[in-house]
Design goal:
Length: 427
Amino acid sequence: MKRISEFNVFRAFRSRNYALYFTGRSVSQFGTWMQRTAVIWLVYSITHSAFFIGVAIFAEQFPSFLFSIPGGIAADRYDRYKIIKITQVISTIQSVLLAILVLTNHATVWAILALSILLGIINAFDVPARQALVHEVVADEGDLPNALSLTTAMASLAQLLGPALSGIVLSIFGAATCFFINAASFGGVIISLLLMKLPAHTLKKTEKKIMVEFAEGFAYVRKTASIGMPVLMLAIVSLLVLPYNTVLPVFAKVIFKGDASTFGYITSFVGVGAVIGTIFLASRKPGAQLKKILFVSTIMMAVGLICFSQIKNFPLAMFFATLIGFGSVAQFTVCNIIVQSESKPQMRGRAIGILLMAIFGMMPLGSLLVGAISQHIGAPATVLGQGVIGLVVALAFIRFLFKQRTIHVSDDVLIHEIQEIIAEKLD
């Protein structure tokens, strides 16, 4: 009979290193979401242009895509502990520079974009190292699923509350305060790292040719329809539908006649939907028909976008914002699980990497596209069009989603995959 402690929701905290890791990351996650919200609002306040919002999102996300392979290699070959300490110091400097620019009235859009590019490069090395470090800071391997669950819950909570808090701080104190808060939050990570007791790192030597292995992965995904189709579907959605957040500041200020706090509330309600979607997927029973869930979640996201674009009543619009968040996170997550379930063990890592590259390569480009289009036809018409495209994509892939065999995943596997994927996405 298992001990009662094994069922403790917080049992991963038995590992001192994980408790420190969790505490540091919790503080930093809230600061990160505050800065992200403040940057988007600041760019919109300076330019009054949805196009430049897209450029700002592109500037942060696309460098992460370009440097994702070097970042992953560094996390595998070098000391992750030292990598994270370096990225946190540079991230602190980046946030402080943003705050100084605002306080000295030198916050031009080009300066903000340059610092956003720097942050994107930092994240390309920070995220893989930080995700991999979780496995090292948990003393008991049996506590790893619980640790991932707690990390995911913390990331979801930060996504939910961070933008709302940022909106309030922006309205009262301004963007510089948000940037200083984020800079201070990195101190929590640095302190937690310094207090950890980890074994000495052993340098890994390898003769493997990374690009050759990646080319094999692309060929495998292209030839395997059960994997290639979800990758293609999510790539299209990431380019044309998911960048809806590019025009959310326009809805906050122009459509709902609000301010920075209004923008924060909209983003937070999308976060509410994401949290509900995570809980829903994690609670699915064995035999979950994932492809049907993928179809329904895509439809939900599309319907949410169409209704959100046409409704001017703020409380009702927040209901559809929640629907958008639910559909988008469920769609993203289920595609990941399908790819992992269908991939051969020796190809799984490369298949997942290609899927993530498709997502994070397309979304920045989509942000540019959506921002440019909204300048000509307006934010409501743009989001309406994105919703219609979402419906078309769901219908275009309906044969694949309903006629191929259904994938069955056990609760344990499903929960474990969701925890890792959502934590990665929210970071």
